[in-house]
Amino acid sequence: MPVKHWSFAGLVLTGWCNASCASCYLCCSPERTEQMSSESALSLWGQLIDASPHGCRVHLTGGEPLGDWPRLIDLCRRARAAGLGPLQKIETNAFWATDAAVVRERLRALDAAGMEKLTISTDPYHQQHVPIERCRLASRVGEEVLGRQRVQVRWRDWLEEGMDTGSLDAGERLELFARWAASGRDRLSGRAAALLGPLLPCRPAGAYADSPCREALLRSRHVHVDPAGRIMPGTCAGIVLGTSAQRPRPRGAGTPDEAPVEGSVGQVWRRLEADHGRRAVVGVLAAGGPVGLLAEAREGGFVPRAGYADKCQLCWELRRWFVARGQHADELAPAWMYRP
Predict the structure, then answer these.
(1) Which in 5, 55, 224, 313 has the greatest CB count within 10 A?
(2) Between vectors from CA 153 to CA 151 and to CA 157, what angle results, nearest 5°?
(3) What's the distance, CA 38 to chain centroid?
(4) What pLDDT is attached to residue 245?
(5) What pLDDT is recorded for position 247?
């Protein structure tokens, strides 16, 4: 099967986040210290553009990329100066939006540095950690500075009608999370698989047979790159498609085909196209979904639970089981993401 070129990519600048949201598929938290250097980010940004005949639209994410404002704005300015193309968006939970003047100043600076959109994450899970008024302030000032069409809110209905959930007692919060998770907006991977999946109606693992993952793994055109240069499918954190070298590459040094760089994003893509069917994790998932992995895990003693909310929750539980036993480390990483 042909692998689509990557046309959208998120550079995960940091694993650090002020929050530990129940919905986080990357398992970010205040304890994480991973950082992508600006030099690595610029190199990867250029490689991503060069690797696709259509170019690649890059966004900056985390963790919380605005946790280090000086580093973020410096990176954006350097990318613009290097001619790396427009910055599609920056994703934030707006924890930093405590003062309208500060929000206005930062958004004007990001606008001048080439940011096309500001994306604000707001939902019951984020509002356990971030006061919703900060999200509303960031949205309001963002629309003033950038225009409404350049402020993306996930999710706007919650922004308009939601509340802080950190003050709810555990039972009330769990009930709210269950109602919200039932809307189907969350990907049940990472922390969401562990905390939200059990709140939803479940079916036996066998119900997800004949449910291949080729679209998510090979055909989506969307990837994330973590601070170590691991390239992961956009919706499947913790599955490694390949790892790119993170060294500077002069712009205009030729196309990847004319001047290949060992370990470049282009080489990672070409290797994936050539051998994905033979890979123990990606190949099996693409062909048959997580039930394909279940057969191998059962041989090693894995016992599935009574039911799973969807195939992604099943996949996450299987991958965690393999990682705990040191299996498939080349395709399942970083290990810290799989720890409870």
Answers:
(1) 313
(2) 130
(3) 19
(4) 77
(5) 55
> Which residue type sits at 198?
P
Chunked into runs of 10 residues, the chain (340 residues) has average pLDDT values of 92 97 96 95 96 95 97 98 94 98 98 98 98 98 98 96 96 97 94 96 96 96 96 95 70 34 82 96 97 95 96 97 96 91
- Domains, the chain, in order of start with CATH, read 1-340 (3.20.20.70)
Q: For residue 28, what are its two tokens?
A: 């970010």
- Take residue 294 and report the two structure tokens written for it: 């279940």
Name residues whose C-beta falls within 8 Å of residue 208's C-beta, 6 or more positions apart in sequence.
289, 290, 291, 308, 310, 311, 314
Dihedral class, residue 161 (left if φ above 0, else alpha if ψ from -120 to 50, else beta): alpha
- Give the CA distances from residue 179 to residues 23, 125, 202, in Å, rounded to whole numbers and listed in that order: 13, 12, 15
Nearest to 281 by CA among 248, 245, 322: 322
